[in-house]
Amino acid sequence: MIAFERVRQKRVRSVPNNLPPALREIIDYRKSGLSLNHIVGCPLDCGYCVRHIFANYEMKRPHLIVDDEVAVEQLVGHWAFVPHRTPLQIFNRATDPFLPGVKDHLFATLKQIDDRGLSNPVLVITRWEIDASDVAWLETLRNVKLTILVTWSGIDNDRIEPVSSRIAERSLEVLRSAASRTKIVLYWRPLIAGLNDTCANLQRARTLAQYADATVFTGLFFREEIREHFRAAGIPDLYQEVARRKILPSSVERRVLRAFEGVPIFRKTSCGVAYAHGTADYNGHFGISEICDICPNDQRALCGKAHRRPDIDEVRKLAEMVNLQTDNALVTDRAVEVSGSTEYQRYFIQHALNYQVHDRAQPHRPYRHGRAEVGWE
Hints:
This protein is an alpha/beta fold and 377 residues long.
């Protein structure tokens, strides 16, 4: 079980000198936007946490790398930041934003962004407690398009996830009772075949969907570091293979979609966020038609209206800004195809164009929805 005395710590410590270099970089670019992480450390002990990959899983108390003011200045001064456009995430890599102590920094960061008059989409992901006073404060924001994504899995194995899913359920209920401008996403993850995909799990998720503006489901990042952690805890391998992308077998997806028939549900985070706010998907998934085949008709119409295939000159101009060679770049009806790119380069172009950008070395196979091949062969 979680050491709850660690969770209750309200003081965020100063960062130690031995913090891994990757975590000292407080801004990175992910598919869902620029990610700001100037606090690292988390006591919640979720076994599948990506902090294993950063060699930071044992840091159980949150530590502050730079002050909030400095962090926001670096964010809005980042080369990839575009006012009112670039999607943002806060504290989604190395801590939980609603932990005691961390929450103060979350609110201070949100206020500074909002006070600048910026209307960028802002995503905050949590599996911890949200109370009525938190929602009242969030509702005071006037400019940012804020989405709270409440992570829920239904996993009841303490060695995999010691955080009770009931905490997330209560947070959803509190948000639904008080939130208006703030949008709510049930972030159903990680779905793991044979573990939390029972009929009872699926029915519970459908029930919880009534508390959210949208539901997004996704699978498990199963990297070697995470597999070794589970083996050390006595957990049999959750899958036979590790993978770079999230694993969500086709059989699990089919059962999820049957369980949610008639209820809006989305394969991609940005699709759920867009639906919650009544906007087009900022990641331009519309060109990948099989991703969108489960979306409500009105959302497909909205995304379709905003969808525009860019010309190659637009792509090259943006690629030049991020030093990406485009001699063999190709624009198809589905995506821009490039070679030798980094995630930073692809996502910057993708968000600028609202059009998918894929690297040929990491192909997006039809009907895989950007997931691992495991369970789809």
